[in-house]
Amino acid sequence: MRHYLWVALGLLVVALVVAFGHQLKTVQQWVGIIGVPAIVLVTLQKQKTEELQLFKGLFTEFNLRYDRMNAKLNAIRDKLEEKEIDDTERNTLFDYFNLCGEEYLFFSQGYIYPEVWRAWYNGMQIFYQKPRIKKLWDEELQTGSYYGLQLDGASCGACFFRRFIKCSSGRRNSYNWLPQENTYRP
Questions:
Q1: Alpha carbon distance 148, 104 (integer Å)
Q2: Contact, 102 vs 111, CB < 8 A?
């Protein structure tokens, strides 16, 4: 929740209105009423901290995995289109496809920020645009093995393609909604 401080302030105002409306007489009553916004604030802050730690862990892991295969991927991308993809290249590409699918899974569940997903998706497009890679990737995507990832923008594979489309998880949070003016359109 992005505006948790405003929510806590709003709850504090409501608590004060309730407190004055009921003409509370004891300190315990006041603490009970005023304590609710404080508890909500602490809970929201703790949740936000945990979400940021999870995001950082995922972001770091995914980037490390990509960095380990980056040189091989670029070599595959730069080969002539007439060359067949050999077994070693195929294994490297499958590892990359799996990484992309996992990134999409965590994005669709709201654990990866839309800005990060957009950057990763744009990077995927660099490889997807190469016909020899695209052919293999399209075959793989048809198997349904990549958690709903779509690279052509035809589905919610990249939720930012349409204005305020809820991601496949159905979860509504600040991560999986993006206004149209911030969208990428292939």
A1: 8
A2: no
Residue ranges for the chain with pLDDT beneath 50: 154-186
**Stated length of the chain:** 186
Contact yes or no for 111/55 (Cβ under 8 A): yes
pLDDT of residue 2: 63
Alpha-carbon distance 175 to 1, whole Å? Answer: 9
**Which DSSP category does 165 fall into?**
P
DSSP 8-state code for residue 168: T
CA–CA dist 131, 101 (Å, integer): 20
User: What is this structure's pTM?
Assistant: 0.71
Q: What is the Cβ-side half-sphere exposure of residue 31, based on CA atoms within 13 angstroms?
A: 3
Cβ atoms of 58 and 74 closer than 8 Å: no
- pLDDT for the residue 1: 53
In angstroms, rounded to a whole number, what is the distance separating the alpha carbons of residues 115 and 128? 20
Nearest to 119, CA basis, from 61, 180, 63, 165: 63
Q: Which two tokens stand for residue 182?
A: 């911030």
| 11 neighbors 37 (Cβ within 8 angstroms) | yes
